[in-house]
Design a protein that fits this description.
By secondary structure, this protein is mainly alpha-helical. It has helices spanning about 5-15, 25-40, 50-70, 75-85, 90-105, 110-115, 130-175, 190-210, 215-225, 235-245, 275-300; strands spanning about 250, 255, 260, 265. Strands 1-4 form a two-stranded antiparallel sheet. A two-stranded antiparallel ribbon has the order 2-3.
Length: about 300
């Protein structure tokens, strides 16, 4: 089975079925990661070496198992499509952001704060409508990379082992990659590995956003603003995305009780419900572009 066909089939399954409501493998993996963190980072006393060991125990056996299953005759192609489907979160992303935009359009700020809290780790209780719209739009742009584009990239580059390694590593970064007292040392490996795996995909996604939106503005924001963002990969994605949409994102936010003076991203009017919807549409168009490129590459190779 060609890479392009496998990607198209996995995306079709994601759009048709969405994420499994019960027994999602990543949920089980999250429980495993939690137990490993308790074992290797009890009371936040784990060191970098403990984090490396825990990462290896969590990721390597499962990556090897999925790879072996994908090599089986007859069922190997189905395993590959299934693994990529489980790694994708395109429909889920849309299902999470739509209620936020709907609540903002209905001037229901409490409901908008509640629904956006499922998307972001910052405190949402005191956000005004603009703050909610910023948070949701930023989440659309960043999670478009993490939950969709990067998974497609690593599947195209390295097949099943690539996408499994990426998706599990990204999950561990989301759980362990915090710069706080508990995870500063233990989560260092998870954060750095995710940075490496996301480096190329993030820049391809930033370019995709730029090509499909306000290109000149997106490229300028990427160049000038991304270096001031604390994440080396989220910076290009979100700066280019904000510029492509012609909206202002970023700015101060509160995470885990601590204020963060974040850089301003993009240029234009304040974010609103339309910004969320346009960001979601930008991600969808980007996925369509990537599938077309993969199909064209497959035809050329054939």
């Amino acid at each position: 089975m060609s890479i392009a066909l496998a990607c198209a089939m996995a995306l079709a399954l994601d759009l048709l079925l969405g994420e499994p409501r019960r027994w999602h493998p990543l949920v089980g993996f999250g429980h495993l990661a939690g137990r490993l963190e308790q074992r290797f980072n009890s009371a936040g006393r784990g060191w970098r070496s403990h984090g490396v060991t825990a990462w290896g125990v969590a990721v390597i056996p499962l990556t090897a198992l999925c790879t072996l299953l994908s090599w089986l005759p007859v069922v190997g192609d189905a395993v590959a499509v299934g693994v990529l489907y489980l790694a994708l979160g395109l429909r889920s992303l849309g299902e999470h952001v739509a209620p936020v935009a709907q609540a903002l359009r209905g001037n229901d700020l409490p409901e908008a704060r509640r629904t956006v809290s499922f998307l972001v780790s910052r405190h949402t209780e005191a956000l005004d409508a603009t703050g909610v719209a910023k948070a949701a739009t930023e989440s659309v742009l960043e999670n478009g990379n993490d939950a969709v584009f990067a998974a497609l990239f690593w599947f195209a580059v390295a097949g099943v082992p690539g996408v499994v390694l990426y998706r599990l590593s990204n999950t561990l970064d989301a759980m362990w990659g915090y710069r706080n007292e508990r995870f500063e040392r233990f989560g260092w490996a998870a954060a750095r590995i995710d940075d490496v795996l996301n480096y190329v995909p993030a820049r391809l996604v930033a370019l995709t956003y730029a090509l499909l939106g306000k290109t000149a503005l997106a490229l300028r924001c990427w160049q000038r603003q991304a270096p001031y963002w604390d994440s080396p990969n989220a910076g290009p994605v979100m700066a280019a995305g904000a510029g492509a949409l012609g909206v202002e994102l970023g700015g101060p936010a509160v995470y885990h009780g601590q204020g963060h003076d974040r850089a301003v991203l993009g240029e234009g009017p304040a974010a609103d419900a339309a910004s969320i919807e346009h960001g979601w549409q930008l991600v969808q168009r980007g996925v369509g572009l990537w599938v077309l490129i993969l199909c064209a590459g497959a035809a050329f190779y054939a």
